[in-house]
Write a structure and sequence with these properties.
This is Zinc ribbon domain-containing protein. It comes from Streptomyces aureoversilis. Keywords: Coiled coil. By secondary structure, this protein is mostly helical. The chain has helices at about 5-30, 30-90, 95-175, 180-190, 215-225; strands at about 200, 205, 230, 240. Helix 1 packs antiparallel against helix 3 and helix 2 packs antiparallel against helix 3.
Length: about 250
């Protein structure tokens, strides 16, 4: 393939733009905020799960407390009725009064036991409420950190995308000035050779594979016409000759 030396040199400009686009794409996917957000979101999920568990416990103990207080109230009301009957003693035999006294005493003990249960449940509910308050604060704190990291990531991505858009426009202009067949070869090699399709021959060294050309290769390059498209024997990339090639 033949192409004017100026067109070949423009490949270096095109390569620089493509390299920058590759760098920007890599930078976009490896922003430190990505890992930071992933870590924070994992923490947030864990804290939310703990919060849900604490809220469930608080809700359960609230129902348990209500039930225990109702049991106490029922026993209290029954004891009050029995005590009233005992105080009046109307129409009751001595044995009935004795039995009623025992029942009142039993109800008093039962009421005391149930009140202890209420106190125990209240303590557990208070502990659950404190846990809910603590975890709510943690969730809010981690969420704030997530929001901050997301804002920083979005700002960084927007900046990268803006530069990438500018570089892409510039690439369109440069690529339009390169002959179609030369551009096709360059793009094919760039895709095959890890993003580099054309490399400068600098002081007898290919800047694509970083290997120095041997004497035979140098002689072949020296003998090539200025408009001949030369390829590196080692990496197959287009070798662009300049005044610094060392020929």
């Amino acid at each position: 393939m033949n192409a004017a030396p100026a067109d070949q040199i423009r490949l270096l400009d095109l390569q620089a733009l493509d390299t920058r686009l590759g760098q920007l794409a890599h930078k976009r996917t490896t922003l430190p905020e990505h890992a930071e957000i992933a870590s924070l979101e994992a923490d947030l999920t864990q804290h939310r799960d703990l919060l849900v568990a604490a809220q469930t416990e608080e809700s359960d103990t609230a129902r348990e407390q209500t039930k225990a207080e109702q049991d106490v109230d029922q026993v209290r009301q029954r004891a009050a009725r029995d005590q009233q009957r005992l105080d009046t003693g109307v129409g009751m035999s001595a044995k009935d009064l004795e039995n009623l006294q025992r029942e009142v005493a039993s109800l008093a003990k039962r009421q005391g036991d149930l009140e202890d249960v209420v106190l125990e449940v209240m303590e557990r509910r208070e502990s659950a409420q404190e846990r809910v308050t603590e975890l709510t604060g943690r969730v809010e704190s981690v969420q704030a950190k997530v929001n901050d990291a997301v804002a920083r990531r979005d700002a960084a991505v927007a900046e990268i995308d803006a530069e990438a858009a500018s570089v892409t426009k510039e690439r369109e202009i440069v690529s339009a000035s390169v002959p179609a067949d030369l551009l096709k070869l360059y793009d094919r090699l760039r895709e095959k050779q890890g993003g580099i399709g054309a490399a400068r021959l600098n002081q007898r060294r290919c800047e694509g594979c970083r290997l120095e050309l041997d004497i035979t290769e140098l002689n072949e390059v020296r003998a090539a016409a200025p408009d001949q498209v030369v390829r590196c024997e080692n990496c197959s990339r287009i070798l662009v000759r300049t005044s610094e090639s060392g020929l």
